[in-house]
Amino acid sequence: MKLKRLIAAFFILALNFAIIGRAYSEPIIFAQVNNPTGIVVDNTGSVFVQSQPLPEFGGGGLLKFDANGNLMTQNNQLTGNFRLALDSASNIIWAQEMNGVLYSVDPDTLLAQPVIDLRAWIMGNILQSQAFNILTGMPDTLVMVNPVFGDIATSQSGSDQLDVLVTGLTNASGGMPFVLRLSFNNGTLQNPQIVVTSLPSAVVLPPPLDTFPSGLAINSGGTVLAPLPTELDPNNDVKATQLFLSIFGAEFPATADASTPNFIPAFESRPVFATGMTASNTDNGFFATTIANGFGCGAGPALLHFPSTLDSAHCILDLSSLGLTNTEPADIAIDPNNQFLYVTMPQDGSVLRLDPPSLPVGNAPLQPSETSMLFGTTPLPPSDTSPLFGTAPLPPSEP
User: Which residues make Cβ contacts (< 8 Å) with residue 44, sequence separation at least 6?
Assistant: First the structure.
């Protein structure tokens, strides 16, 4: 009997390691930026970072760095809390502001053109909207009060069809989450549509997701990954609403063959609080910045990787184990060659870079220099880009 129990225990441990792996990669500071939020990498390897203004110093804007961390250009007019996405087919950076304004940005000049004010459009057209409720599997009424918007991702479903998906909350002071789709046909915007929501009987979202919508990513197969809340468990001491990973087709419900939204069975007991997500071109998998519970990273801030099968998870970086327990990573991006991951760290004013260990290893790290930011006892080597205050020019990085 004892032998059978030992065999069973060993099997359970082996299964857990198969589902959740740990693979740490050593990060470096790619750039130092005031309050960095959104980030994206274009086809040339250039890195675009949104910097929010600081109350004491002002500044902020959209910054463009080369692959070595040298500042190339910046747009000081595009301030605010943005998330960024790349439309590689049209060579456009999409910038979604939290207050609802969506911009298209020229990646060469950073010239930004407003496309639509989603908040104004919703408040003027669909104060009450029917959307698919993932908890019931049926359409339900979503009441808008003062919506805010979060992460953004794009999906090219044809040579003339582009879908842009955005996460949101029905109220800036805390509301119901939703995912909205904007479709562009031959460059012409169709009416936005709220495609999926989750409407528990009570929502007590934990910070920062109580006021900022969760992350979102779409892989090249058209699979959307997004955390959505479930009902509060009356038998659980945790009083905050838990969010779990859900998937659905990027064209849902416009096309009959698009996958219907549902929660992922492999992670149904593992809550995830993610503000930034991105997809990998190499394996069609996903990366997320999250407060991770049950994913092999402990309960603190972490970076996770999910393969396209979405039946396992890997802890890429446990930030709490590096002395960064109180930080909240904002967003994550990967370059088109899948060599480097980039993560924005608003509290530390830094953009981290690391090799994704489950993918091909990247190039040699940037040259080290002095920094006061320590992971354990070893300093992180940053690029020579200094923090941004106002519009003062940055000193050039050394070759």
Answer: none
Tell me the DSSP string of 126-139. -SEEEEEETTTTEE
Cβ contact 305:285 at 8 Å: yes
User: What is the spatial distance between Cα 230 and Cα 228, in angstroms, rounded to a whole number?
Assistant: 7
Question: Is the dihedral angle over the CA atoms 248, 208, 317, 62 positive or is it negative?
Answer: positive
Q: Please tell me the pTM assigned to this model.
A: 0.82
What is the distance between the alpha carbons of residues 12 and 9, in angstroms, rounded to a whole number?
A: 5
Residue that is written with structure tokens 């006021």 in the block: 211
- CB-based burial label for 181 (10 Å; 0-12, 13-18, 19+): buried
Which of 317, 293, 314, 316 is CA-nearest to residue 18? Answer: 314
pLDDT tens-place values along the chain, 399 residues long: 434 333 333 332 333 333 344 445 578 999 999 999 999 999 899 999 999 876 555 568 999 999 999 999 999 999 889 999 999 888 899 999 999 999 999 999 999 999 999 999 988 887 677 889 999 999 998 888 899 999 999 998 777 889 999 999 998 887 889 999 999 988 889 888 899 999 887 777 777 777 788 899 999 999 999 999 887 666 666 666 788 899 999 988 877 667 899 999 988 888 888 889 999 888 899 999 987 767 878 778 889 999 999 998 888 888 877 777 777 889 999 998 888 999 999 988 999 999 876 443 333 333 332 222 333 323 334 333 333 333 333 333 333
CA distance 169 to 176: 5
